[in-house]
Each structure stands twice: as structure tokens, then as C-alpha cells.
Write a structure and sequence with these properties.
The complex is a heterotrimer of chains A (54), B (235) and C (229).
Chain A (H helix, E strand, L loop, with lengths): L5 H48 L1
Chain B lengths: L7 H4 L5 H19 L13 H30 L2 H33 L7 H22 L3 H26 L21 H42 L1
Chain C lengths: L6 H19 L1 H18 L9 H22 L3 H4 L4 H6 L4 H30 L7 H27 L5 H28 L4 H25 L7
The chains are: A mainly alpha (54), B mainly alpha (235), C mainly alpha (229).
Chain lengths: 54, 235, 229
């Protein structure tokens, strides 16, 4: 008699997708935030360079 | 002083093709495993958890953790910052995979053993792996100086790599309930061909996912260090 | 000025310095001791004494308390050097880095042994353990366990003291490593105190000895990497 435990499989697959998915989202958000900080630092640097060169 | 051209390569966001392919591969495996793979007669549909549980377990231990340990050793020897970033990335991605192992394992275990958790060698080692990577991440978070952080993390990484087999061997003294590996028997594997295909497809897909996540995490580490250097220059 | 002391002699000098400082105030030792005794007491009230015999519980209680009291002792290990960067004095001295580690570990070993010397009799007393040959074996197991705890704990204490959350970080780093020690010590002492033949306890003792050998070596080799130079 094959046991009826499909619910467990569904739950496991969902949980895994959730963990991996949340991690991907976390990576994307962190990368975006870092790029924003970097571009802000870059624009400050070029602005001060321009001011110094002028 | 500011090398304006250097950061642009990293600063320009590119579409992550590897990650896209990996996610697609995983999605396809999901469909194949759930809809197109036969149900195992004795264990029922829950046996399909194997395809994501065993692959995550293998990658967490033998890919992520091994990479973390090896980069730690190499870092202490060669002192190259890139190695530290690899170790850091391997640890974090490994933590995600280990979490999946610990969440899917009990769900599968409940159906085949009747118990959510047992303290057998493999489960216990995996739990310890999880604790150790968390400790590793906390240690990294607590040390400000970059050089010191890398050294401390490397020391912990190496010691952790020594501890996990120790735990496994120690707990092996207790009787283990973990299912014997049916693919790695010296004789022919006892899985029907369709399941084997699903299993190996799952393996490939999740290895791709690991590689994509590792690369993305490594990029973040590089960006973070770059930002930190720039901020220090301004100060 | 004579030759710089060899590693063992230098370790002993470092250990003596630490123990002298510790002995002057005794606060840390007495606090850890009282903590251990309180812990042993609290555990006794934590379950149904009619369901489980106190003597069966005793090994578990002893080794759990041992790890937490040990952690308290380890916390203070490098703390005294943090003030005024006193560690620079140590680093400037003509002794090897390994000697600094071994000396600190030795001082911690004395500290932890002192706590065990009081806690074990307390457990025998409170849990009504049969006082026989098992007690001698217990002392031996305690020595092995203390060596392992101190080896790992001293290394992590050196790292944790340089961070913002030292008190939380030290347990987080150390406790996973303490598990084989607790496992080996508790399982072997439980069997020996229950009067089982030594052959039954031997596999667990082997784990303890193996852990000590592997991690004393590894931590001694790793220690220089935790220093900033």
C-alpha cells in the first residue's frame, strides 16, 4: 500500500524554493544598494576633482 | 588618485545570465520531479524530497564547505584577498543550501522513520555544519579590520573543517537510521532509470545554482570592499 | 642577559604571570566556582527526581556545567591584556608565539581544573554518587576534557576579545567544538560510574583523547595567525 504523503513532498519543495528564492532576492537587493553607494561615492569624487581642477 | 576607469567594470550592472539559466534549470527539475517522475511504491510521493534534499546536502558539504575550507587554507598561505572573498561567499551560499537540507530532511524523515529528527551521524553533522557557518558569519560581522577579519575567519574555517568529520565519526558510534546511499553502492544502483535521470538532472541544476549564487555573492564582496576603500580614501 | 627561554620554559613564565594576576583578585575564579555550584543545584530541581535517578543524571549535569563554567573562565583569559594594549609587551618579549598560546592555555587549565576540583565532589555529594573506584577514573576523564576545552577556548578567546561582542561570540565559536569533549567525557564517565567494564567506556575515551591530540596541535599552529603582525 503506497502511503499518501504527497503533502510532505509539496511542503519540502515549496520550502526549498522559498529559501533559495529569498536568498536570490537578498543578493539582488544588497548588490543594488552597494552599487548605489558606489555611484554616489564616484559622483562625489568626480565633483570634487572638477572643483579642484577648475 | 581616483582611478575612475577601474570601478566602472564592476559598477555597470550586467544581466546575470548564469543565474537565469540556473533558475530555469531548477524550475525544469521541479516540474520533472513532481510531475514526470514515478512515485516510489514503498515510500510514496514523499520520496521525491530526495531530489532536492540529497543534492543540497552534497553541495553544502562537499562543494560549499570544502571550498570555504580550502580557500581559508590558501588565504593563510598566500594572503590574497580574493581567496578570503571566495571563502566568505562559499560560506554564505553554503548556509542557504544547509538550511534547505535541515528543512527538507525532517519532512522526509517523518514519512520514512516516523520521527522528525534523529541524532544520527549525518543529520547531526549537518546541524553542526549549520552552527559553524553561522558562527563563521557572526565572527566576520564582529571584526572591523579587513585583514584581521580574513585571518580570524580563515582560522575558524579550517578548524570547522576539522570538526565536522570528527562529529560525524563520533556520532557514528550511535546506531544510524539514515538511509544507506542507494546511488553510491559498488553494485548497480537500485534506482529505476527514470529516477536516476531526475536525480542527475537535479544535481546539475543545483550545482549551476550554487555557481551562480557564489558568483553573485562574490560580486557583492568585491563591491563592498571597493566601497569601503573609497570611503576610507575620502576620510 | 641570558638566552631567550625555550618554548616550554616561556610558556610556564606566561602561565605564572597570568595565574599571579588571577590569584591576586580571585574574583573570576570565585564567580565561576559559585556559578558551577549554583548550576549543579538548579539542574537538580529541573526534573522529576522520582522518574529519573539522580545518579543517572549526574554525568550529564557535570559536563554541561563544566562547559559553561569553563567558558566563564576563558572569557577572562585575554581580557587582562586588552587594557593598555598590554599584549604588546608580551609580543615584544623574546618568546615564541606558540609559547604565549601554551602559557595562556596552561593558566586556563589550572583555572578550569580548580573549578572541577570543587564541582566534582559537589556533584558526588548532591547526586549521591557511589564513592568508589569510579571517582579516580572521573578525575582522569576530567583532566582530558579540561585539556580539550582549554585548547580550543584559549584560541577563540584570543580572537573574541578583539571584537565588539566578545561575551556572545566566545560561546558561539566554542560550543560546537565542546560537543565531542562533552560526548566523550559524559558517555565514558556514565559507564564507568555505573560500574560497567572499562571496555565499554573505551570508545568514548578514544574520542576524547583523539580530540585532544588533534585540536591541541591545530590550535597551537593556528594561534600565531590571530596576532596582528
Amino acid at each position: 500500500m503506497t502511503p499518501d504523503n504527497g503533502g510532505f513532498a509539496t511542503a519540502a519543495y515549496l520550502l526549498a524554493a522559498l529559501v533559495y528564492g529569498a536568498y536570490v532576492v537578498s543578493l539582488k537587493l544588497r548588490e543594488r544598494r552597494l552599487r548605489e553607494r558606489l555611484s554616489r561615492l564616484e559622483s562625489h569624487a568626480t565633483a570634487s576633482n572638477r572643483a579642484a581642477g577648475a | 588618485m581616483t582611478s575612475a576607469s577601474e570601478p566602472l567594470a564592476v559598477a555597470r550592472p550586467r544581466r546575470d545570465i548564469l543565474l537565469g539559466v540556473a533558475i530555469l534549470a531548477v524550475a525544469l527539475v521541479y516540474v520533472r520531479a513532481l510531475a514526470f517522475t514515478p512515485i516510489e511504491a514503498r515510500q510514496g510521493a514523499a520520496q521525491k524530497i530526495l531530489y532536492i534534499h540529497a543534492t543540497a546536502a552534497f553541495i553544502a558539504l562537499y562543494v560549499a564547505f570544502a571550498l570555504m575550507a580550502i580557500s581559508s587554507i590558501l588565504y593563510l598561505w598566500l594572503k590574497d584577498e580574493k581567496l578570503d572573498r571566495v571563502a566568505e561567499s562559499a560560506a554564505e551560499v553554503g548556509l542557504a543550501f544547509t538550511t534547505v537540507v535541515l528543512l527538507t530532511g525532517p519532512l522526509w524523515g517523518k514519512t520514512i522513520w516516523g520521527a522528525w529528527w534523529t541524532w544520527d551521524a549525518r543529520l547531526t553533522s549537518t546541524l553542526f555544519l549549520w552552527f559553524l557557518i553561522v558562527a563563521y558569519s557572526l565572527l566576520r560581522g564582529a571584526v572591523e579590520d579587513r585583514g584581521r577579519r580574513a585571518r580570524y575567519a580563515a582560522v575558524l574555517g579550517i578548524l570547522a573543517a576539522m570538526l565536522v568529520p570528527f562529529i560525524h565519526l563520533s556520532v557514528y558510534l550511535f546506531r544510524t537510521l539514515h538511509p544507506m546511499p542507494i546511488l553510491l553502492k559498488p553494485s548497480a544502483p537500485s534506482m529505476p532509470a527514470e529516477m536516476q535521470v531526475t536525480f542527475f538532472s537535479a544535481f546539475v541544476a543545483f550545482v549551476l545554482l550554487f555557481a551562480a549564487l557564489l558568483r553573485a555573492r562574490y560580486r557583492i564582496a568585491t563591491l563592498r570592499d571597493l566601497v569601503a576603500s573609497r570611503e576610507q580614501e575620502r576620510a | 642577559m641570558g638566552d631567550a627561554p625555550g618554548t616550554l620554559a616561556a610558556s610556564w613564565i606566561v602561565a605564572r604571570k597570568d595565574l599571579a594576576i588571577e590569584f591576586r583578585t580571585r574574583t573570576a575564579f570565585l564567580s565561576a566556582l559559585v556559578f558551577a555550584l549554583l548550576g549543579v543545584t538548579i539542574f537538580y530541581f529541573a526534573w522529576d527526581a522520582t522518574a529519573v535517578a539522580a545518579a543517572d543524571l549526574a554525568p550529564g549535569v557535570l559536563w554541561v556545567i563544566f562547559t559553561f563554567a569553563g567558558l566563564l573562565g576563558l572569557q577572562r583569559s585575554f581580557g587582562s591584556e586588552l587594557a593598555d594594549r598590554a599584549i604588546d609587551g608580551l609580543l615584544g618579549a623574546p618568546i615564541s608565539r606558540e609559547a604565549i598560546y601554551l602559557g595562556k592555555a596552561l593558566a586556563n587549565l589550572v583555572f578550569v581544573s580548580g573549578i572541577l576540583a570543587v564541582t566534582i565532589p559537589a556533584v558526588v555529594l548532591f547526586y549521591n554518587l557511589p564513592f568508589g573506584a569510579g571517582i579516580g577514573a572521573l578525575a582522569g576523564i576530567a583532566a582530558l576534557a579540561a585539556v580539550g576545552l582549554v585548547a580550543v577556548g584559549t584560541l577563540f578567546s584570543a580572537m573574541a576579545v578583539n571584537t565588539r561582542m566578545a561575551e556572545l561570540l566566545l560561546p558561539m565559536l566554542s560550543l560546537p567544538f565542546f560537543v565531542p569533549i562533552v560526548m566523550g567525557a559524559a558517555q565514558s564517565s556514565a559507564r564507568l560510574m555505573a560500574g560497567r567494564p572499562i571496555a565499554e567506556a573505551w570508545p568514548w575515551l578514544r574520542i576524547l583523547v583523539a580530540f585532544d591530540i588533534v585540536f591541541v596541535t591545530a590550535c597551537t599552529l593556528a594561534f600565531p595567525f590571530t596576532l596582528d603582525e
